[in-house]
Design goal:
43% helix; 4-stranded mixed β-sheet; alpha/beta; binds zinc ion; 419 residues; 12 helices; 5-stranded mixed β-sheet
Length: 419
């Protein structure tokens, strides 16, 4: 039922009364004479990826896949204290006035007050029942500096494969995916970027909010997140706040995003890193190409141009949209190929793969039901390498994954023989 208020103060006291004077946030988008004003009280407990500001911002952005051009108004009462997640989400979606003028809302506005609950929209079809710990997968050991091992790359491939399974079939996903993994290797959750539904629904954020709604728990100690792109400021803030002990987190990302700047995770030393130097796939492409294909590129100038376009495309994309470049055919090839290679590995495991890293075999066995459940099996074969863009993607993937499989599997086997 729309109501009219004399001024903002009168509206505020009406909301406070509805909230029984608990600390609260309210938010609305200015510019119309009929306003929906969203409010939420500050109910966040440790690790809960919602608080009053997050609830309000997400409610405002339902159905909107871009920022509000003129900036929304977000106001909080005394006693509200948002953590990094709210603060960084605020910075992500726009800038806001701290003080709200009494004239901002007055008798010329029709206002509908809406109490917004925490987001409940779940990701489709994820039922972790039956996906218990991957036995004897010691991620603590695997994660030691300088030992980014095949197991981590497997989980990263799973994130890539999730992207492909969605992007390839439905156009969802925006080519960014995230997988949450417990210290014992169990799959805790996943997420894809669904920013077309809501500007704030990034892959990492989807994974964390989905995990919370299923478990009502903060991210467990020693939790790992594998994400295909370096988390933005908003997601980094949420990852940090959602963890039971943030300093024990590990966040691996495949692609760097220098437009992100410093984040809440940077403050936690050793928490976040690229999964191997070569996995910085887009910024490293010129180096990879010149090393691996120098002779061929000299003869095939067209391919060299393709490599340059790939590199500059990523650089230029920062000016337009930080991830717009990821929808290009070359980037899609990378995701598609990662998916196919993961399926290859699983097929090998099922068939005749007896040698190699035992931890890798256990993870392959462990993630297989998830891969099937998520429809990744239907993702289709890897692209036929031969086109200019696919040639680049093939080189990148070789560095990202293939070299490791043999050398690292062998190294781990050798060390385990001494145990
Ligand atoms: Zn993000």
């Amino acid at each position: 039922m729309p109501r009219r208020f004399r001024d903002f103060d009168q509206l505020l006291s009406a909301v406070k009364k509805e909230a029984n004077n608990r600390p609260l946030c309210l938010a609305f988008a200015p510019g119309a004479t009929q306003l929906d004003v969203y409010w939420s009280d500050a109910v966040r407990q440790t690790g809960e990826p919602h608080d009053a500001a997050v609830n309000c911002i997400q409610a405002l952005h339902v159905g909107r896949n871009y920022k509000w051009e003129r900036g929304i108004v977000l106001f909080h009462t005394d006693g509200y204290s948002g953590g990094k997640m709210a603060q960084k989400m605020l910075e992500f979606v726009g800038s806001f006035p701290r003080e709200v003028s009494r004239k901002t809302i007055n008798a010329t506005f029709e206002v509908t007050l809406i109490q917004c609950a925490k987001r409940t929209e779940a990701l489709p079809q994820f039922d972790p029942a039956g996906l218990g710990p991957a036995p004897n997968v010691d991620l603590a050991w695997e994660a030691k500096p300088g030992r980014e091992r095949a197991v981590h790359r497997l989980y990263m491939m799973l994130a890539f494969a999730l992207v492909q399974s969605r992007v390839g079939n439905s156009g969802e996903g925006h080519n960014i995916g995230a997988v949450l993994v417990a210290p014992d290797g169990a799959l805790l959750g996943w997420g894809l970027n669904t920013a077309r539904k809501n500007y704030t629904f990034h892959a990492e954020l989807n994974a964390i909010q989905d995990f919370y709604h299923r478990t009502n728990q903060p991210l467990p100690e020693g939790c790992r997140m594998y994400t295909t792109l370096k988390p933005c400021q908003m997601c980094a803030g949420m990852i940090r706040d959602a963890a039971r002990r943030p300093e024990t987190l590990r966040v691996f990302f495949a692609q760097d995003d220098q437009s992100t700047g410093s984040t809440a995770l940077d403050e936690l030393q050793g928490v976040q890193r690229l999964l191997g130097r070569e996995s910085d796939i887009f910024s490293e492409v010129p180096f990879v190409i010149s090393k691996a294909k120098a002779l061929r590129l000299e003869r095939l100038r067209a391919e060299s141009d393709a490599a340059n376009r790939l590199a500059t495309g990523w650089r230029d994309s920062r000016l337009a949209h930080r991830t717009a470049y990821l929808t290009t055919p070359t980037a899609l090839d990378v995701f598609k190929s990662a998916s196919a290679r993961l399926i290859d590995k699983i097929d090998q495991y099922q068939g005749h793969l007896q040698l190699g890293n035992p931890a890798v075999r256990k993870v392959l066995d462990h993630i297989r039901p998830f891969v099937q459940q998520m429809g990744i099996m239907a993702a289709g074969p890897a692209p036929a390498f031969g086109s200019q863009s696919a040639l680049v993607a093939n080189d990148v993937l070789n560095d990202l994954m293939q070299e490791d499989w043999d050398s690292i599997d062998k190294a781990v086997n050798e060390s385990q023989m001494h145990l």
